[in-house]
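Project outcomes to date are best conveyed with an example. Our students and postdoctoral researchers have been running inverse folding experiments weekly, and each run begins with a structure described purely in tokens. The record below, which covers 444 residues, was selected by the lab manager from last quarter's runs and is presented without edits.
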């Protein structure tokens, strides 16, 4: 028999019989699957899953900004794959492969504001989505998935557990094959959990981590028991503990984003080919003048918040000829440019604000906005946007980049009166508006 992976700690109770049979017949022993971790950028919807066997990262888009990520074995094939919970309406979106694409399963469960819980809560080798209701400190466990965008009925288990503000997570903390609920008090690092789906005090508790850390759990060392791990957003670092006891981390790795949330599970075979998430570069600012790239300023993406006329140009030389202008732009506000490593210089003039590589979002994705250049995903949600043009003209662009060349323009239009509509795609990188008034989000 070829060696195969056995999913999760629930296999431990079966393993002794399998070992005896395998040894008697001279067959290879099965191996428990090792848990891996990943990071989901909640502002862009990019997933980064790290393969625990070789450290390679698989990267793909899935979800909208603000969705809560999770992973689970939705189709009972042994591999845990992405899921999303949209708190605004309680909708669940599940995929059966670790790749970009649309949801394979869609349904709704719970109330707005609930937090999803993904796990095998009845030891049937299949994961389902349950919820934690922070407003009541209450757990609702259901052992089936919905379908066809419908709802689910009553939960199989409902009980109170925890204090307001505690964050839930899921794991098989004793290796009995049943995932149960843990809670993390982010303000103090207190971790505590139950070993059954019943109301009562915690069966175990300990301190792990610092205030603000984000918790997860998986079987990091393939011994049949899920233990805790943390993402420290301030340091973009993962910390794993190999036992559910108080102590220092057994493993630490720079792998994360300040805007990320951790996920953990047994992902199965991953294709790799992605880039590990990394913290943002040190903040760089500069003002007007001509700046040599790689000497005065590093290459990268920069933004300027000037409220008046502002001009910038990427240059291939310093001779002063028009042929040396790679790309240029004159305001609107919130100008964004990507300066390439091969550029010789960048010129800025008449800008009343400094350029900065601090690209933190300046608005929520579905909030209304007016003139400027904005990032799709973190600042402009994919979907339909509309604006009423009352005077002058409205010009807009959907952008694939910020090089300030014509190649960046996916689509554009000039509207002189009436209502302007734009369908922003998930694959767009930016959106530019000039003279269009206020854009309002009209839905996906």
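After processing, the design step wrote out the following sequence:
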């Amino acid at each position: 028999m070829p060696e195969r992976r056995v999913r999760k700690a629930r296999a431990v109770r079966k393993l002794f019989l399998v070992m005896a049979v395998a040894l008697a017949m001279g067959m290879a022993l099965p191996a428990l699957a090792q848990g891996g971790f990943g990071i989901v950028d909640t502002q862009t919807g990019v997933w980064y899953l790290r393969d625990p066997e070789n450290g390679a990262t698989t990267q793909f888009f899935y979800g909208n900004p603000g969705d809560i990520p999770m992973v689970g074995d939705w189709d009972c094939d042994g591999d845990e794959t992405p899921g999303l919970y949209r708190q605004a309406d309680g909708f669940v979106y599940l995929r059966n492969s670790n790749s970009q694409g649309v949801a394979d399963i869609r349904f709704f469960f719970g109330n707005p504001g609930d937090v999803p819980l993904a796990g095998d809560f009845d030891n049937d080798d299949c994961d389902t989505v349950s919820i934690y209701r922070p407003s009541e400190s209450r757990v609702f466990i259901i052992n089936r998935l919905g379908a066809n965008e419908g709802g689910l009925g009553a939960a199989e288990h409902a009980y109170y557990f925890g204090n307001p503000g505690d964050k839930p997570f899921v794991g098989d903390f004793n290796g009995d094959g049943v995932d149960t609920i843990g809670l993390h008090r982010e303000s103090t690092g207190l971790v505590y959990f139950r070993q059954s789906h019943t109301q009562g005090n915690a069966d175990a508790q300990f301190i792990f981590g610092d205030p603000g850390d984000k918790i997860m759990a998986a079987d990091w060392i393939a011994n049949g028991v899920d233990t805790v791990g943390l993402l420290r957003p301030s340091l973009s670092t993962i910390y794993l503990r190999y036992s559910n006891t108080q102590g220092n981390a057994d493993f630490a790795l720079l792998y994360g984003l300040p805007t990320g949330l951790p996920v953990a599970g047994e992902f199965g075979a991953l294709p790799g080919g992605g880039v590990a998430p990394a913290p943002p570069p040190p903040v760089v600012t500069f003002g007007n003048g001509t700046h040599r790239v790689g000497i005065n300023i590093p290459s990268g993406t920069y933004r300027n918040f000037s409220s008046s006329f502002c001009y910038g140009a990427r240059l291939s030389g310093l001779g002063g000829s028009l042929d040396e202008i790679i790309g240029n732009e004159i305001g609107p506000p919130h100008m964004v440019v990507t300066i390439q490593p091969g550029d010789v210089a960048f010129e800025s003039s008449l800008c009343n604000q400094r350029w900065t590589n601090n690209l933190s979002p300046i608005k929520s994705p579905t909030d209304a906005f007016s003139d400027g250049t904005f990032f799709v995903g973190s600042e402009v949600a994919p979907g339909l946007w509309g604006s009423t043009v009352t005077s002058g003209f409205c010009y807009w662009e959907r952008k694939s980049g910020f090089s300030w060349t014509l190649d960046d323009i996916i689509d554009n239009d000039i509207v002189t009166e009436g209502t302007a509509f734009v369908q922003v795609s998930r694959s767009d990188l930016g959106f530019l508006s000039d003279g269009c008034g206020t854009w309002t989000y009209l839905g996906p």
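The first strand starts at residue 5 and ends at 6. The longest helix spans residues 12-25. The training component of this project remains on track.
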